[in-house]
Design goal:
homodimer; alpha+beta; Jelly Rolls; Arc Repressor Mutant, subunit A; four-stranded antiparallel beta sheet; DNA-binding
Chain lengths: ~260, ~260
DNA sequence: CTAGAGTATTGATTTATATCAAGCTCATAG
DNA sequence: CTATGAGCTTGATATAAATCAATACTCTAG
């Protein structure tokens, strides 16, 4: 089945590139993502149907209605999943960091948008071939299942936040969650970082879509947190957590995205 | 491994009963739940570690912090999953209908409560034995994966509702979702029913925990929908949908729980 | 160095929902 | 059949967040 594929295959966009095995060795997806339970032979097979692809910040990766042509694994950058109501109201459902998998297996559509928040690099897999692979490789399905369970846990944490938290609690929760995720992600990639300083990769508008608030309310909560001495903000995007205790107290509960 | 189990096994509460094969034949879990892709032999094996158990409306099934001792599949009745903030604020995360599976595989805890909304009958599986089974049976894991993906879809639909809908839209969405789910569920079980009449199994308080509102707001929206002629209410719990079009318009978008 | 666009903050006002407070309905037990 | 209590509705008021509006910051391109 795999030798059907070559560079001319119409399922691959011209913007894509082959992956070589040395790339896999350094990859977070290989380390702890969907590839982490594959043996070398299977990984090599999978690589034949895989192409690397870059997206610029803001670009749409998957639409909410177009038939799903491919799945993807995030190698670097951050994506968001979102839904839009007919009148334009938008809700972000979650963020994807390396080594997350994106795409709805066992359905022919996503029911949400996936778009790049920062510049993003992904490995893409043509849908039909990947599905055959998935069927034949229980260890791959097992790993995807685990990743999906984590996503479900995260979605449920955010439901509690969306339904029951005040604006300031939401913002505090988001900041802590980001501090944690960016620290872990950067550490894994060997990027020097510390737990209290980070660049918030989201605009205020993206934050408000995530928290179910408006831009103005988000902005006011940031100012409030600054006034209370819990955080410092420079250049609008660079956050320093000055009082993690205090922030956690405000956030109340949640720990992870 | 399975012959270790008998009625005296301490992992089984005294309130439980054996399952016989004729029961499975009529069961929704067998028809379209986690058992649906098991062959007869595997099903018979699984049945040896399975016990039936009843819960009364309101009873707690799984707690959010106690180590998970068993998993369960819902045979009849409705359960809710919920989270509680330290100060008591509560958010319902979703409802479980037959043939849903409950319990967080691959972790030793649920991070939420599961409780019976109506009287409920479940099949329970001791955690450690079920895990062995799961590892050995890819078709079972596959089915659980699919069920989990559906739960994730549902969770994300509700995130949009929680984050971006007004009170009246939330209530309209809930009613449509219930009409649909109860109709499907009852039809499957051969219970006579129609799509426009149903008994709402939730109290106003449970509804408000689900929608991220207060009891009073929920009540007001019901009254409003009645005044607009979209629904009829008798005895507070019996709902008649008088204008599905209008209700769907109000709800805006979502279709399923 | 400046203009301009995009992004963020801050203020004034409105509005949806929460909160507080009665009173009502319905099922059940005496 | 009536008393009781849990669950529900309705009204009055308070409040958090949305909306509307103006101004300020930050980066880029010229």
């Amino acid at each position: 089945m795999h030798n059907k594929i070559d560079c001319q295959d119409e399922r691959f966009s011209p913007k894509t590139n082959h992956i070589d095995s040395s790339e896999c060795q350094l990859c977070e997806v290989r380390a702890c993502g969907m590839c982490s339970e594959l043996d070398t032979a299977t990984l090599n097979d999978l690589r034949k149907i895989t192409r690397s692809r870059d997206y610029k910040a803001g670009e749409l990766i998957f639409s909410d209605d177009a038939p799903l042509q491919s799945y993807a694994a995030i190698k670097s950058g951050i994506v968001k999943l979102s839904k839009i109501l007919p009148d334009g109201r938008q809700q972000t459902l979650g963020l994807g960091f390396p080594p997350d998998f994106i795409g709805r297996t066992y359905k022919d559509k996503n029911t949400y948008f996936v778009s790049a928040i920062t510049n993003v690099t992904v490995c893409t897999f043509p849908r039909d071939l990947f599905n055959e692979y998935l069927k034949a490789t229980p260890s791959l399905e097992h790993r995807l299942f685990e990743l999906t369970l984590n996503e479900l846990d995260a979605a449920r944490d955010w439901m509690l936040m969306l339904g029951r938290m005040s604006a300031i609690e939401k913002v505090a929760t988001l900041l802590l969650s980001f501090a944690d995720r960016l620290y872990k992600s950067n550490s894994l990639q060997g990027i020097p970082c510390d737990e209290t300083h980070f660049e918030l990769p989201l605009t205020r508008s993206e934050i408000s879509d995530f928290l179910g608030l408006t831009i103005e309310t988000v902005s006011r909560q940031f100012s409030l947190l600054k006034k209370k001495g819990l955080i410092g903000i420079t250049q609008q995007r660079f956050i320093e957590i000055l009082d993690k205790e205090g922030l956690s107290l405000l956030a109340g509960q949640l720990k992870e995205t």
